[in-house]
Each structure stands twice: as C-alpha cells, then as structure tokens.
Specification:
single chain; alpha/beta; Rossmann fold; 8-stranded mixed sheet; 6 helices; 8 strands; about 30% helix; about 20% strand
Amino acid sequence: MSDQQTPIPVESERINVSTASGEMWIYCARPAPGRRQGAEGRAVVVLQEAFGVNDHIQDVARRFADHGYLAFAPDLFHRTGTGTLAYDQHGEAMALIGALGPDAIVEDVQAVLDHLARAEDIPPARTAVVGFCFGGRAAFTAATAVKGLAATVVFYGPGIAAGPHAVLDRVADLDAPLMLHVGSEDPTIPPAQVEAIDAALAKSGIAYESYLYDAAGHAFACDARPSMYRSGPARLAWERTYSFLDRLLPTVV
C-alpha cells in the first residue's frame, strides 16, 4: 500500500476553463461530503510534473481533497495537446517543459484562480499553489506574479535558480509564505542552487521554510516511481506540507 493512499473516496471530474491560449482542462477533486464540514472555501492548485496530469498527479489531487481541500490540477500542456507522457519519455518531457516559459505558466495559473474565485467563491487568499518537479518551478514562478495567494509549496523544483526560465531574480515580488522540499542527492538542484535560493529568500524578507532531505534524490515523494521514491522523506515532506497549509488555510468553524 502507498504511504499516501487515500482511504476515503473523493468526488472527481474534469472541467474546462478558458485561457488566452485556448481551452485548458483541469482535473478537479472535491472532498467527500463527510469531509466538507468546516473545509469549504479553501483550495489547492496542483501543478504537474514534467509528464502531465497523469495518474500520479490526479492521485495527489485526491490526497488534498481527502485532507479537506478542493484540488485543481490544470493541464499545462494544453497548448500542444500532448496530454500525458510515460516516465520513460524523459526527452519528450524536457522539450515540452523547456517551451513553457514564465508568461505561459502565469497565464494558466491565473486562469485557474479566476475560475476558483468566480465559480467556487474561493479567492486567492484561500488558495495555495503546490508543484512537483517542473510544477515546482511553475509554482515558484506563479508565486512571483500572482498576488494575494495564501501559500506556495515547491517539491523539488529545478530551474528556479538557473536555466532559461530561472526566476530567482523575481523573489522581491513574492508576497505569500513559501515552503520548499529538496532531496540532498537531487542532481537537478545542486547545492549551489539550493544555497542561492535560500540566500535570495532570506534577503527578500518573505516568510519561508526550506527543507533538505538526506538520502533522497529527485522525485523522492513520487510513489509512482519506485526507483526514486523514498518513503521516510516523502512522509515527512507531506506532514510538513499539510501542517503548513492547514495553518495558513484553516478550516472554517
């Protein structure tokens, strides 16, 4: 059994929203009726790995719903119509995410937030953005441009401090608390980049928490990839994430 398997069923559906670049589908997971009491009005936007809104990302959305959040996972590949890729299609995935610069990411996240505010009556102040792998970079990017979010969580997001779409120079624009999870053995986020991110965040004055997990590499929290998954660090990262979000997005009494 997965460490993160959700024993309580949730309600899920696919919806479409309009962006300036066309229609974008979103996997939506809602708390089961018995889990909604006091949890109404808070949401998490789940940003995909480099492989699309696949079964794993949909499962992650259901975990958040099981925890009492409305969870939306938008298809950031909607411009190409790619859908999802297998985990062994690394080259194809790198080409796709390399083409997604900051403007496209912000456009898509803003479209999700606009829909949440309009259709669900959930404002950015009651919404967090959580991203994994490429989605971690995307979450950090969105947080530098979208104002009034409740929180941002970055799971092993490469490309923040270096690369063609680096956004570390935008940390002054962050206005919401941030949490970062990085594996100590992650080759995509070497120590120099971890240090650069910590230094920039410390200088910015934004509230943030940064955690380095020993004996963990890239995608250490992805239980769909057994060769990379590390149960101990993954469990701790999820516990910290839930605690962080529950503090910033408390249930309504």
